[in-house]
Amino acid sequence: MDRYQRFAKSGIGRLVVGRLGLPDPYPLRRFTPGQPLLAGPVLLGGTGRLVDPVAAVLEQVDVHREAVTGQEYAALVFDATGIDDTTRLREVHEFFHPVIRSLGPSGRVLVLGGGTGVAQRALEGFTRSVGKELKRGGTVQLVHVAEGAEDGIESTLRFLLSAKSAYVSGQVIRIGRATVEEPADWDRPLAGKVALVTGASRGIGASIAEVLGRDGAHVVCLDVPAQGGDLSEVANRVGGSSLQLDITAADAPARLVDHLTQRHGGVDVVVHNAGVLRDKTLGRMDSSRWDAVIAVNLTSQERINAALLGTNALRGNGRIIGVSSIAGIAGNAGQTNYATSKAGVIGVVEALTEEMAGRGSTVNAVAPGFIETAMTAGVPLMTREVGRRLNSLSQGGLPVDVAETIAWYAHPASTGVNGTVVRVCGQMLLGA
Ligand SMILES: NC(=O)c1ccc[n+]([C@@H]2O[C@H](COP(=O)([O-])OP(=O)(O)OC[C@H]3O[C@@H](n4cnc5c(N)ncnc54)[C@H](O)[C@@H]3O)[C@@H](O)[C@H]2O)c1
Prior knowledge:
The protein is α/β, with parallel strands linked by helices. The chain has helices spanning about 5-10, 10-20, 50-55, 90-95, 120-135, 155-160, 205-215, 230-235, 250-265, 285-310, 325-330, 335-360, 375, 380-390, 400-410, and strands at about 40-45, 65, 75-80, 105-115, 140-145, 170-175, 195-200, 220-225, 240-245, 265-270, 315-325, 360-370, 420-425. α1 crosses α2, α7 (about 205-215) packs across α15 (about 400-410) and α10 runs parallel beside α12 (about 335-360). Nicotinamide-adenine-dinucleotide binds next to α7 and α13.
């Protein structure tokens, strides 16, 4: 809990927050190993083609097909794939209206769509509004599942229903048809895989390394030589290895490919997390600030991707995962360089989607909003407070929230999730 959250939970704080209508951040349920998928029963509604596949995924969970009066639900899941006409949108209202107020703390709302048509598009306005109404850490997503992709939903459902998606809300996710690799052990889906994480010595990168290591991957932790000490600490902690390299160096892609192929026989998951800020308004921004940000945040990724794909160092069912930013979607004063680079990261996803699908692999990105790190702790107090509160959950996210989203993309059964940019922002108002 941050300071404001502690205040809002105190006796006097509760009164002030209530009277003034101030944001009331609710402590979010976050994942711990061994935790059950959901803290209570699920209500599953709708009559489309996903009801049975969803019920199969939720085999271990108490699933109700009819609402029980007085029951608090951990999740409300509605299969809207059958809604092919706007007059049938009332089925969404019919299902949610009587039960939405019985959603428990950190509850999950999932609307499952079929992808195309006017009525299906309309569902976006519904889910995004529900996200803004939910209290007590609730989240909502719209997941479109293509015809024939019904057997590829499990990793996505597990992620979105679990506490791993605590800070993801108001997103539209598409699952396409793909050959899905079922992990032998759902608790260690990356066992036997090799993952590369750039900028892994601290902050979000260190958390990504930890989560991918927890999921069973051998993590190659990369950072600049100046971060060598912290980097080996992280690598040791996650049972991985470290690689000191400046990703902007001319020979970096070739050295990286050599390292990964010679030491590990290739790589399965590549996470481009390294990033820098050099903020100034455009008129005050010299070319060195511009060049440094574009080189680290964008061009180096393109060069590394080209080298990995050109040499086939990235193995089958591989993953390329970028770290963009809300600034790359909404733009931000003082960040023309940074926002350009981060919009470019989305461009990388778009440019590679088809090629990656052809390889049975994927490329995706996360766009974090306000995440509590050393970087954001340095932001002036008022800007920081506004950044923290301007989202449906009224709080900043944690590095682990970004890391868990990346682990979902990295999951071997997430092959149907390709070309996606998911915001990890608590449904921030900026650029929404
Ligand atoms: N913190 C946030 O709120 C936030 C929000 C949106 C996006 N992001 C993005 O998330 C990523 C991680 O952010 P963070 O807050 O953990 O930042 P951070 O500054 O704590 O970590 C970035 C890491 O990248 C490394 N790095 C920088 N240049 C490098 C280079 N040339 N070669 C190799 N490594 C290099 C740094 O040494 C550092 O360890 C960045 O891409 C950032 O833009 C962060």
